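Researcher: Good morning. I'm working through a list of sequences from a screen, and I'd like to move beyond sequence-only analysis. For each chain I'm collecting a predicted structure so we can compare shapes side by side. This is the next one on the list. No need for commentary yet; just the structure.
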Amino acid sequence: MIKSHALKIQNAGASMEHSVIERRELRKHDILIDIRYSGICHSDIHQGEGDWGEAIFPMVPGHEIAGIVAAVGSDVTKFSVGDRVGVGCFVDSCGECDYCLAGDEQYCTKGVVQTYNSLDYDGQPTYGGYSQNIVVTDRFVVRIPDKLNMDVAAPLLCAGITTYSPLKHWNAGPGKKVAIVGMGGLGHLAVQFAHAMGAEVTVLSQSLSKQEEAYTLGADHYYATRDQDTFSKLAGSFDLILNTVAANLDVNAYLSLLRVDGTLVNVGAPSKPDTYSVFSLILARRSLAGSLVGGIRETQEMLDFCAEHGIAPMIEVIGADPEEVQHAWERVKQSDVRYRFVIDTEQLNGN
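Model: Good morning. Structure tokens for this chain:
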């Protein structure tokens, strides 16, 4: 087994602590990655604190992983030692069902194996990117373009693909009016993607505090949702609304902002159910939808798109001390970060 220093959570809501975990020895199609950076995703916090129900402990969070190939299995041909690579939310799937064959591994009918808080097909728990290294099947590894720094590449492996995939799927582009709900870790990337795709972009945020940043990132318009006049001014305006916030909203109010045949897509995941009136849908043939990240092929496409268009998250790099990471989690819960934390995992050691 391969030893790896990591940050571990012993049980739901417990404080983070240093630990040593074991990674499997390389199989024929495996890649050993020395992790350089691991992004902090709000879902790490939800799962580490048990907000989403039963979880597997001890837990090593992290599914926004950027690193360097340290070794490859005997049948690996696409990657070599020294390559700059990334790993996102999933590390295995059946590879045989209709969705896997179509490049939508996230919807695998056998059940995709998540990067952490999951069981692999051998029944062993998976451990994530808050660690020194990871062993991953080669078809779940993506290449980080040279134009992307590795620290900014890490959050793209979840936050980036989570927003890129639905914008592409629902045809954000020239002639389309797109609203982004929330100007946070997901939203500030969604603004950049929608702008680069050619859409007219509006940000809907609680206050005007992030207005100038939104314009800098490519927004055409910005409205505060605390101002109730916003909903009357913008009624029936948008072809697509991407909701990035992990809180319960007045769904009917946001549906009213859609044109006929418009779609409200949710990528944020609040812990409590939303409610809405079906009349908010049927009176204008509107749709309410959701989207789960993207497949591996699309994730590589997203990284290449970022490199081509100069898209990158705004980040704050922190050390790998357990207390520092725990403090970052608290700041995320308070929305006190512009806009993503990234852990420098090279600082992990045996101390």
